[in-house]
Automatic annotation (TrEMBL):
The lineage of its organism: Bacteria, Pseudomonadati, Pseudomonadota, Alphaproteobacteria, Hyphomicrobiales. It comes from the Bacteria. Gene3D superfamilies: Spore Coat Polysaccharide Biosynthesis Protein SpsA, Chain A (3.90.550.10). The keyword Transferase applies. Pfam families: Glycos_transf_2. GO terms for molecular function: transferase activity. Residues 95-156 form the Glycosyltransferase 2-like domain. This is Glycosyltransferase like family 2. Keywords: Transferase. InterPro entries: Glyco_trans_2-like, Nucleotide-diphossugar_trans. It comes from Mesorhizobium qingshengii.
Length: 329
Protein backbone atom coordinates (compact mmCIF):
# COMPACT_ATOMS: atom_id res chain seq x y z
CA UNK A 1 0.00 0.00 0.00
CA UNK A 2 1.10 3.55 -0.64
CA UNK A 3 2.14 5.73 2.28
CA UNK A 4 -0.55 8.28 1.44
CA UNK A 5 -3.67 6.25 1.86
CA UNK A 6 -7.04 7.39 0.53
CA UNK A 7 -10.06 7.53 2.79
CA UNK A 8 -12.98 5.34 1.85
CA UNK A 9 -16.66 4.80 2.58
CA UNK A 10 -18.94 1.85 1.95
CA UNK A 11 -22.58 1.82 0.84
CA UNK A 12 -24.36 -1.37 1.87
CA UNK A 13 -27.69 -1.87 0.09
CA UNK A 14 -30.30 -3.64 2.21
CA UNK A 15 -33.19 -4.20 -0.22
CA UNK A 16 -32.18 -7.82 -0.70
CA UNK A 17 -32.07 -8.44 3.04
CA UNK A 18 -35.78 -9.21 2.78
CA UNK A 19 -34.98 -12.39 0.88
CA UNK A 20 -32.09 -13.84 2.90
CA UNK A 21 -32.33 -14.92 6.50
CA UNK A 22 -30.67 -12.96 9.28
CA UNK A 23 -28.04 -15.65 9.78
CA UNK A 24 -26.85 -15.16 6.20
CA UNK A 25 -26.80 -11.37 6.58
CA UNK A 26 -24.81 -11.87 9.78
CA UNK A 27 -22.18 -13.88 7.87
CA UNK A 28 -21.82 -11.01 5.40
CA UNK A 29 -21.53 -8.37 8.12
CA UNK A 30 -18.96 -10.42 10.03
CA UNK A 31 -16.87 -10.82 6.88
CA UNK A 32 -17.11 -7.08 6.21
CA UNK A 33 -16.02 -6.36 9.77
CA UNK A 34 -12.98 -8.61 9.28
CA UNK A 35 -11.96 -6.78 6.11
CA UNK A 36 -12.35 -3.31 7.60
CA UNK A 37 -10.27 -4.32 10.62
CA UNK A 38 -7.58 -5.75 8.33
CA UNK A 39 -7.08 -2.58 6.28
CA UNK A 40 -7.36 -0.38 9.37
CA UNK A 41 -4.31 -2.21 10.70
CA UNK A 42 -2.48 -1.07 7.56
CA UNK A 43 -3.14 2.58 8.37
CA UNK A 44 -6.42 3.33 6.61
CA UNK A 45 -8.67 5.73 8.46
CA UNK A 46 -11.90 4.58 10.10
CA UNK A 47 -14.47 4.38 7.29
CA UNK A 48 -18.04 5.53 7.13
CA UNK A 49 -20.46 2.67 6.37
CA UNK A 50 -23.86 3.73 5.05
CA UNK A 51 -26.67 1.20 5.40
CA UNK A 52 -29.12 2.27 2.70
CA UNK A 53 -32.54 0.64 2.96
CA UNK A 54 -36.00 0.96 1.46
CA UNK A 55 -37.97 1.29 4.69
CA UNK A 56 -38.92 4.21 6.91
CA UNK A 57 -37.56 5.57 10.19
CA UNK A 58 -39.18 2.75 12.17
CA UNK A 59 -37.39 0.24 9.96
CA UNK A 60 -34.14 2.08 10.64
CA UNK A 61 -34.51 1.44 14.37
CA UNK A 62 -35.23 -2.25 13.81
CA UNK A 63 -32.38 -2.59 11.35
CA UNK A 64 -29.92 -0.91 13.71
CA UNK A 65 -31.01 -3.25 16.51
CA UNK A 66 -30.62 -6.34 14.31
CA UNK A 67 -27.18 -5.33 13.07
CA UNK A 68 -26.04 -4.54 16.61
CA UNK A 69 -27.12 -8.03 17.65
CA UNK A 70 -25.47 -9.79 14.70
CA UNK A 71 -22.26 -7.73 14.34
CA UNK A 72 -21.85 -5.70 17.50
CA UNK A 73 -18.27 -4.62 16.76
CA UNK A 74 -19.18 -2.98 13.45
CA UNK A 75 -20.04 0.30 15.13
CA UNK A 76 -16.69 0.22 16.94
CA UNK A 77 -14.56 0.10 13.78
CA UNK A 78 -16.77 2.23 11.51
CA UNK A 79 -18.84 5.36 11.50
CA UNK A 80 -22.15 3.55 10.95
CA UNK A 81 -24.97 5.52 9.36
CA UNK A 82 -28.47 4.45 8.34
CA UNK A 83 -30.16 6.15 5.40
CA UNK A 84 -33.78 5.39 4.51
CA UNK A 85 -35.30 5.68 1.04
CA UNK A 86 -38.90 4.51 1.49
CA UNK A 87 -39.93 2.30 -1.40
CA UNK A 88 -36.58 2.73 -3.09
CA UNK A 89 -35.58 0.14 -5.66
CA UNK A 90 -32.12 -1.44 -5.93
CA UNK A 91 -30.25 1.39 -7.65
CA UNK A 92 -32.26 4.03 -5.78
CA UNK A 93 -30.79 2.67 -2.56
CA UNK A 94 -27.27 2.87 -3.94
CA UNK A 95 -27.77 6.45 -5.07
CA UNK A 96 -29.44 7.23 -1.74
CA UNK A 97 -26.29 6.22 0.10
CA UNK A 98 -23.84 8.33 -1.92
CA UNK A 99 -24.56 11.74 -0.30
CA UNK A 100 -23.97 10.26 3.16
CA UNK A 101 -20.45 9.08 2.28
CA UNK A 102 -17.37 11.15 3.02
CA UNK A 103 -14.40 9.10 1.76
CA UNK A 104 -12.26 9.68 -1.32
CA UNK A 105 -13.39 6.23 -2.50
CA UNK A 106 -16.97 4.91 -2.39
CA UNK A 107 -17.38 1.12 -2.39
CA UNK A 108 -20.74 -0.52 -3.08
CA UNK A 109 -21.73 -3.93 -1.75
CA UNK A 110 -25.00 -5.73 -0.96
CA UNK A 111 -26.66 -7.43 1.97
CA UNK A 112 -26.74 -10.77 0.17
CA UNK A 113 -23.05 -10.95 -0.68
CA UNK A 114 -20.15 -12.19 1.46
CA UNK A 115 -16.64 -10.83 0.94
CA UNK A 116 -13.64 -13.14 0.89
CA UNK A 117 -10.38 -12.51 2.82
CA UNK A 118 -8.31 -9.80 1.14
CA UNK A 119 -11.32 -8.29 -0.63
CA UNK A 120 -11.10 -4.76 0.73
CA UNK A 121 -7.35 -4.45 0.21
CA UNK A 122 -7.78 -5.67 -3.38
CA UNK A 123 -10.51 -3.09 -4.01
CA UNK A 124 -8.49 -0.19 -2.64
CA UNK A 125 -5.08 -1.06 -4.08
CA UNK A 126 -5.75 0.07 -7.71
CA UNK A 127 -6.63 3.55 -6.47
CA UNK A 128 -2.95 4.13 -5.76
CA UNK A 129 -2.91 5.09 -9.44
CA UNK A 130 -4.42 8.60 -9.67
CA UNK A 131 -5.86 7.72 -13.08
CA UNK A 132 -8.06 4.99 -11.62
CA UNK A 133 -11.67 6.08 -11.30
CA UNK A 134 -13.55 2.77 -11.07
CA UNK A 135 -12.61 -0.71 -9.81
CA UNK A 136 -14.75 -3.78 -10.43
CA UNK A 137 -14.52 -6.81 -8.15
CA UNK A 138 -15.11 -10.50 -8.87
CA UNK A 139 -18.58 -11.73 -7.90
CA UNK A 140 -19.68 -15.35 -8.24
CA UNK A 141 -22.77 -17.27 -7.21
CA UNK A 142 -22.71 -19.58 -4.20
CA UNK A 143 -24.22 -23.04 -4.73
CA UNK A 144 -25.27 -25.90 -2.47
CA UNK A 145 -27.93 -27.90 -4.36
CA UNK A 146 -29.07 -28.75 -7.89
CA UNK A 147 -30.89 -25.49 -8.65
CA UNK A 148 -28.20 -23.23 -7.20
CA UNK A 149 -25.55 -25.15 -9.16
CA UNK A 150 -27.61 -24.66 -12.30
CA UNK A 151 -28.00 -20.95 -11.60
CA UNK A 152 -24.24 -20.65 -11.03
CA UNK A 153 -23.65 -22.24 -14.44
CA UNK A 154 -26.12 -20.13 -16.45
CA UNK A 155 -25.97 -16.84 -14.51
CA UNK A 156 -24.31 -13.65 -15.68
CA UNK A 157 -21.67 -13.99 -12.95
CA UNK A 158 -18.54 -16.02 -13.69
CA UNK A 159 -17.88 -19.30 -11.93
CA UNK A 160 -15.87 -19.21 -8.71
CA UNK A 161 -12.82 -20.76 -10.36
CA UNK A 162 -11.32 -21.19 -13.83
CA UNK A 163 -13.57 -18.60 -15.46
CA UNK A 164 -11.34 -15.55 -15.89
CA UNK A 165 -12.16 -15.09 -19.58
CA UNK A 166 -15.87 -14.81 -18.84
CA UNK A 167 -15.16 -12.61 -15.82
CA UNK A 168 -13.14 -10.21 -17.97
CA UNK A 169 -16.25 -9.52 -20.05
CA UNK A 170 -18.32 -8.44 -17.06
CA UNK A 171 -19.59 -4.90 -16.91
CA UNK A 172 -20.02 -3.14 -13.58
CA UNK A 173 -20.94 -5.37 -10.63
CA UNK A 174 -23.12 -3.04 -8.58
CA UNK A 175 -22.69 -5.40 -5.61
CA UNK A 176 -18.89 -5.25 -5.78
CA UNK A 177 -17.59 -2.02 -7.29
CA UNK A 178 -15.78 1.13 -6.16
CA UNK A 179 -15.53 4.66 -7.58
CA UNK A 180 -13.76 7.86 -6.74
CA UNK A 181 -16.35 9.86 -4.87
CA UNK A 182 -15.69 12.92 -7.04
CA UNK A 183 -16.90 10.94 -10.08
CA UNK A 184 -19.80 8.85 -8.73
CA UNK A 185 -21.30 11.89 -6.97
CA UNK A 186 -21.75 13.49 -10.38
CA UNK A 187 -22.63 10.24 -12.16
CA UNK A 188 -25.11 8.30 -10.00
CA UNK A 189 -26.67 5.10 -11.28
CA UNK A 190 -28.99 6.20 -14.12
CA UNK A 191 -32.76 5.95 -13.83
CA UNK A 192 -34.39 3.15 -15.82
CA UNK A 193 -37.56 1.08 -15.57
CA UNK A 194 -35.49 -2.10 -15.79
CA UNK A 195 -34.44 -4.31 -12.92
CA UNK A 196 -30.70 -4.56 -13.64
CA UNK A 197 -30.08 -2.10 -16.48
CA UNK A 198 -28.49 0.84 -14.70
CA UNK A 199 -25.10 -0.92 -14.37
CA UNK A 200 -24.84 -1.07 -18.15
CA UNK A 201 -25.89 2.56 -18.52
CA UNK A 202 -23.35 3.67 -15.91
CA UNK A 203 -20.67 1.69 -17.76
CA UNK A 204 -21.52 3.72 -20.86
CA UNK A 205 -21.07 6.97 -18.92
CA UNK A 206 -17.70 5.76 -17.65
CA UNK A 207 -16.61 4.99 -21.22
CA UNK A 208 -17.87 8.33 -22.49
CA UNK A 209 -15.78 10.09 -19.86
CA UNK A 210 -12.74 8.20 -21.10
CA UNK A 211 -12.24 6.11 -17.96
CA UNK A 212 -11.32 2.43 -17.84
CA UNK A 213 -13.06 0.00 -15.51
CA UNK A 214 -10.19 -1.69 -13.66
CA UNK A 215 -10.77 -5.35 -12.77
CA UNK A 216 -9.52 -6.51 -9.38
CA UNK A 217 -9.47 -9.96 -7.81
CA UNK A 218 -11.62 -8.64 -4.98
CA UNK A 219 -13.83 -11.66 -4.52
CA UNK A 220 -17.33 -11.94 -3.07
CA UNK A 221 -19.96 -14.62 -3.32
CA UNK A 222 -23.63 -13.88 -3.83
CA UNK A 223 -26.29 -16.01 -2.20
CA UNK A 224 -28.23 -18.02 -4.80
CA UNK A 225 -31.78 -17.27 -5.81
CA UNK A 226 -34.31 -19.80 -4.61
CA UNK A 227 -37.59 -21.19 -5.88
CA UNK A 228 -39.46 -21.71 -9.12
CA UNK A 229 -41.44 -18.49 -8.73
CA UNK A 230 -38.19 -16.59 -8.79
CA UNK A 231 -36.97 -18.66 -11.75
CA UNK A 232 -39.93 -17.65 -13.90
CA UNK A 233 -39.95 -13.99 -12.87
CA UNK A 234 -36.20 -13.51 -13.18
CA UNK A 235 -36.10 -15.15 -16.62
CA UNK A 236 -38.82 -12.89 -17.97
CA UNK A 237 -37.29 -9.76 -16.48
CA UNK A 238 -33.88 -10.76 -17.85
CA UNK A 239 -35.41 -10.72 -21.31
CA UNK A 240 -37.20 -7.42 -20.79
CA UNK A 241 -33.97 -5.87 -19.51
CA UNK A 242 -32.12 -7.14 -22.61
CA UNK A 243 -34.59 -5.24 -24.79
CA UNK A 244 -34.24 -2.13 -22.67
CA UNK A 245 -30.45 -2.22 -22.99
CA UNK A 246 -30.62 -2.71 -26.75
CA UNK A 247 -33.14 0.10 -27.13
CA UNK A 248 -30.96 2.58 -25.23
CA UNK A 249 -27.55 1.51 -26.48
CA UNK A 250 -28.24 0.39 -30.06
CA UNK A 251 -31.62 1.14 -31.61
CA UNK A 252 -35.23 1.87 -30.71
CA UNK A 253 -36.43 0.58 -34.09
CA UNK A 254 -39.01 -2.12 -33.43
CA UNK A 255 -37.84 -4.39 -36.22
CA UNK A 256 -34.25 -4.35 -35.01
CA UNK A 257 -35.38 -5.01 -31.45
CA UNK A 258 -37.41 -8.04 -32.56
CA UNK A 259 -34.48 -9.35 -34.60
CA UNK A 260 -32.22 -8.86 -31.59
CA UNK A 261 -34.52 -10.92 -29.38
CA UNK A 262 -34.14 -13.84 -31.78
CA UNK A 263 -30.35 -13.54 -32.13
CA UNK A 264 -29.97 -13.09 -28.37
CA UNK A 265 -31.97 -16.27 -27.74
CA UNK A 266 -29.69 -18.22 -30.07
CA UNK A 267 -26.59 -16.75 -28.43
CA UNK A 268 -27.77 -17.55 -24.90
CA UNK A 269 -28.85 -21.06 -25.95
CA UNK A 270 -25.35 -21.76 -27.23
CA UNK A 271 -23.68 -20.11 -24.23
CA UNK A 272 -25.83 -22.06 -21.77
CA UNK A 273 -25.09 -25.36 -23.51
CA UNK A 274 -21.36 -24.65 -23.55
CA UNK A 275 -21.18 -23.54 -19.94
CA UNK A 276 -23.29 -26.32 -18.44
CA UNK A 277 -21.35 -29.01 -20.28
CA UNK A 278 -18.00 -27.35 -19.67
CA UNK A 279 -18.37 -26.37 -16.00
CA UNK A 280 -20.93 -28.70 -14.43
CA UNK A 281 -18.37 -31.11 -13.00
CA UNK A 282 -16.56 -28.16 -11.42
CA UNK A 283 -19.62 -27.54 -9.23
CA UNK A 284 -19.70 -31.16 -8.05
CA UNK A 285 -22.84 -31.87 -10.06
CA UNK A 286 -23.34 -35.61 -10.68
CA UNK A 287 -23.12 -36.65 -14.32
CA UNK A 288 -26.75 -37.77 -14.38
CA UNK A 289 -27.92 -34.26 -13.41
CA UNK A 290 -26.09 -32.49 -16.22
CA UNK A 291 -28.77 -33.11 -18.93
CA UNK A 292 -31.48 -31.91 -16.52
CA UNK A 293 -29.43 -28.83 -15.65
CA UNK A 294 -29.06 -28.08 -19.35
CA UNK A 295 -32.82 -28.34 -19.85
CA UNK A 296 -33.44 -25.97 -16.93
CA UNK A 297 -30.92 -23.50 -18.35
CA UNK A 298 -32.48 -23.63 -21.80
CA UNK A 299 -35.93 -23.15 -20.26
CA UNK A 300 -34.67 -20.07 -18.42
CA UNK A 301 -33.42 -18.39 -21.59
CA UNK A 302 -36.47 -19.46 -23.57
CA UNK A 303 -38.57 -17.59 -21.01
CA UNK A 304 -36.12 -14.69 -21.28
CA UNK A 305 -36.68 -14.69 -25.04
CA UNK A 306 -40.43 -14.33 -24.54
CA UNK A 307 -39.84 -11.44 -22.16
CA UNK A 308 -37.55 -9.69 -24.64
CA UNK A 309 -39.70 -10.50 -27.68
CA UNK A 310 -42.91 -9.41 -25.96
CA UNK A 311 -41.52 -6.02 -24.95
CA UNK A 312 -39.92 -5.48 -28.37
CA UNK A 313 -43.15 -6.37 -30.15
CA UNK A 314 -45.26 -4.19 -27.86
CA UNK A 315 -47.30 -7.01 -26.33
CA UNK A 316 -46.41 -5.67 -22.90
CA UNK A 317 -45.66 -2.16 -21.68
CA UNK A 318 -42.35 -0.91 -20.36
CA UNK A 319 -43.39 -0.80 -16.73
CA UNK A 320 -41.17 -0.27 -13.70
CA UNK A 321 -39.71 -3.57 -12.52
CA UNK A 322 -40.22 -4.09 -8.80
CA UNK A 323 -38.61 -6.89 -6.81
CA UNK A 324 -41.36 -9.35 -5.79
CA UNK A 325 -41.61 -10.44 -2.18
CA UNK A 326 -40.55 -13.99 -3.12
CA UNK A 327 -37.51 -12.96 -5.13
CA UNK A 328 -33.85 -12.32 -4.43
CA UNK A 329 -31.36 -10.15 -6.28
Amino acid sequence: MAKSLPSYSLVLEMENARSVDLDEVSIGLTALLREISAVSSLGFAKPRVVISHGGDDADTLLLRSNIAAEASQLEQVTDLIFSASPGGRYYDLKNNGIPATDGDIVIFTDSDTVVEPGWLSAMLDPFQDPATVAVNGYTYLYYDDFMSRTFALIWFFPMAQMDTRFASKRAINANNVAFRRSWITNHPFPENNGFKVSCTLLMRELDRDGHKLVSANARVYHYPPRGWQFFRWRALVTGRDADRKFRVLKSSHRGRRIAKSLSHWLTMTWRTTRRVIGHARQTGMPVWQIPLSLLVGLAFYSLAFWGQFGLALGFIGDEVEVLPDFAGG
